[in-house]
Amino acid sequence: MWHSVINPVLRIFTRFDRREEELVDVVTTSTTPGDLDAVIDAIDDFARNRKWLMNVGDEKGAILDAAIVRSQPRLLLELGTYMGYSALRTARVMPDQARLFTLEVDPVRAAMAQKILAHAGVADRVTVVVAGLGDAMNDLGFETGSVDFVFVDHRKDLYLPDLQRLERSGWLHPGSVVVADNVKYPGAPEYRKYLRQAEGRTWRTVTHHCHAEYQSVIRDIVLESQFLG
Length: 229
Prior knowledge:
The protein is built from 10 helices and 7 strands. Helix 8 crosses helix 10. It has a single domain, classed as Rossmann fold, CATH 3.40.50. The N terminus is likely disordered. Strands 3-2-1-4-5-7-6 form a 7-stranded mixed β-sheet, with helices on both faces. The radius of gyration is 17 Å and the shape is globular. The protein is α/β, with parallel strands linked by helices.
């Protein structure tokens, strides 16, 4: 249970030590504008070798990449932009005509993410929305059955309520895919329980065993769930 105490403290500390501002400076000064691969690599290097970042990371990012390639989505939704790392990975592998909308409640982080996305050359295909899902639903105005892929990586206590919001919205269609990070560490037990109970009825879920961001000790789980309707 130690990590349930340490992890929130670590996240509070990282919020105020200006590592995000430092990351923006490193990315924009050390990589060529429009070089998406270089930007992703620079963020990985910063998080592994300089200061830890709470983005999905390279190991779990590869799981996200593979899920997007398999599903070939046209409209994607992300809950939790942070510094734009997973949005960058998503833009790199999603189909050319696809569009990603990524939601971030912190306006400062949203602005920094937008700067990184623009530097990487993907701002025309990625829209950052400064809001949580509940507040953004009316403004987004997606058509019924239009959302093909969702990546969930925001507050863990919102995983299940927001999944249920998506179910009620009618945006999902049979075959829509929802990928959730950090289901084991720091953990989203109610979300995991809900999908386990829904297995074979409204959802079909694959469990990916992996490690927490940028280390090889703490175990984590990524859930990849397909909506059955």
